[in-house]
Design a protein that fits this description.
This protein is α/β, with parallel strands linked by helices. It has 14 helices and 23 strands. The longest helix is centred in the N-terminal third of the chain and has 19 residues. 44% of the residues are buried. Bound molecules: flavin-adenine dinucleotide (FAD).
């Protein structure tokens, strides 16, 4: 006989954990399912392990930049050591997460979940019945549809690599590609980024991206746009990446080829049609309460829902929204105003709110401040000339609409702009705040 729950959650990442814990705390019977070790992308294969690697690369880079300015010695990145440090964070995660679920009385299942009916599932041959089902299955690297795709490794394998080969080609010019490129370059690899579009890091401000690409090239990273990868061939111990670039064919030799070309909701294995859950072009059809438009028993959250940007704080927010709607009926809609996003390059690139193009399209009368600020104290004391910003203010209301930052501390300072946007603060209110000096935040007054 099938075991019956009030809520079954597919996934054990951020969205799953937040929703499952809240619903269980209200006394519901809850089960979670994952076919991978418990913990989800952020903790095991995304943000956290990535940040450990970037942290090491940042330390080394800072030491190199300070050479001849009081810092000496031969500093280098020791990849195996760094990986061991990373594993100190990731290895304990699955057990800790399973323990947390068990402590709360949440049942745990291992295996791939698939729907067998509108409110029934199967996992590892075991049937389950549920009053409600939350799809929190995250995202997977997109299928590229190129010959030799099987030779590409994903972010998951890159973040597990115990050695780093000499020549690395990253397919795609998004945030994962740039973060890996900057880290691998500091570890001594020869890195090429191949992007088929005319711009890399498309969601980010084109001026600041331009400055970051300039910096990447100075570091020796080969950033190529308008270069579409067509085939990857295995040759000897390595690979040859064939691409078309502005009508001509080019080849790029590599020891490692990494998929950095985007991720899409992980829905394929779920057999959504068996549950009557509508989907189109790889995306779930959801109402404003994150509920399936065709099966009210089913909700979705996080990267699987992809209503908001595919980021951890969004997955957490969605998990809270779904839990509230399950417990008290549909009444909460997700609010993605002021979600900051960061590309953890060295230095980092960060953005929140409207882009300049979006603000102009909306016909808003803008006050815009933008500057490459290599001569500011923040840049000079860190020996990092790549420092700049673009801040957008609504001329009529004085509200902060968008902020785009590149340089030391951009990943932290962006949060202050996020706070301002989410809580409708004016530029004047930000200016009158007193920030500790000298910090990245103490530059904000000069950016407004
Ligand atoms: C390399 C990388 C770096 C990133 N860096 C950042 C960052 O710096 N900051 C940030 O905010 N975000 C970052 N992200 C994005 C962030 O990791 C995701 O937005 C977030 O983890 C999504 O959480 P989730 O709960 O929606 O899904 P996930 O954490 O992906 O969890 C989904 C889980 O569902 C499981 N699953 C899938 N299908 C099934 C099935 N059929 N049956 C059972 N289980 C299933 C999966 O195995 C997975 O464990 C990064 C992502 C990557 C890949």
């Amino acid at each position: 006989m099938a075991k019956r729950y009030q809520l079954v959650v597919i996934g054990t990442g951020t969205a799953a954990m937040v929703a499952a814990m809240r619903v269980r705390a209200a006394g519901w019977s809850v089960a979670v399912i994952d076919f991978r070790p418990y913990g989800g992308t952020c903790a095991l294969r995304g943000c956290d392990p990535k940040k450990i690697l970037v942290g090491g690369a940042t330390a080394v880079d800072h030491a190199w930049r300070m050479r001849g300015k009081g810092v000496g010695g031969d500093t280098h990145l020791d990849w195996p050591d760094l990986m061991a440090f990373k594993r100190a964070f990731t290895d304990p995660v699955p057990e800790k997460h399973e323990q947390r679920y068990a402590e709360q009385g949440i049942d745990t299942y291992h295996g791939r979940a698939r729907f067998t009916g509108r409110q029934t599932l199967e996992v590892a041959g075991e049937p389950l019945e549920a009053e409600h089902i939350l799809i929190a299955s995250g995202a997977e690297p997109m299928k590229l549809g190129i010959a030799g795709e099987e030779y590409l490794i994903t972010h998951e394998e890159f973040l597990e690599s115990t050695t780093l080969p000499r020549r690395i080609v990253l397919v795609g010019g998004g945030f994962i590609a740039f973060e890996f490129a900057h880290t691998a370059r500091r570890a001594g690899a020869e890195v090429t980024v191949l992007e088929q579009a005319s711009r890399v890091l498309r969601p980010f401000d084109p001026d600041l991206v331009g400055w970051l690409v300039e910096k990447s090239r100075v570091l020796g990273i080969n950033v190529r746009t308008d270069t579409a990868v067509e085939t990857v061939e295995k040759e000897g111990g390595g690979f040859t990446v064939h691409a078309s670039a502005n009508g001509s064919q080019e080849t790029f030799p590599a020891d490692l080829v990494v998929h950095g070309a985007g991720r899409a909701p992980a829905l394929d294995a779920l057999e959504l049609d068996a549950a009557g859950v509508a989907h189109e072009k790889g995306r779930l059809k959801l109402n404003e309460f994150l509920q399936s438009v065709t099966n009210p028993a089913v909700y979705a959250a996080g990267d699987a829902a992809q209503v908001g940007p595919p980021l951890t704080p969004v997955s957490s927010h969605d998990g809270k929204v779904v839990a509230a709607n399950l417990l008290n009926g549909n009444h909460q809609k997700p609010d993605y105003a002021g979600v900051p996003s960061v590309v953890f390059t060295i230095p980092p690139l960060a953005a929140v709110g409207l882009s300049e193009a979006e603000a102009r399209q909306r016909g808003i009368t803008l006050r815009m401040q933008s500057k490459k600020a290599s001569d500011w104290f923040t840049a000079r004391q860190a020996a990092e000339p790549t420092y700049g910003f673009k801040v957008l203010i609504d001329e009529e209301t004085d509200r902060v609409l968008g902020a785009h930052l590149l340089g030391p501390n951009a990943d932290e300072v962006i949060n202050i702009f996020a706070l301002a946007i989410r809580h409708d603060l004016t530029a004047e209110q930000l200016k009158t705040a007193m920030f500790a000096y000298p910090t990245g935040a103490s530059d904000i007054g000069y950016m407004l």
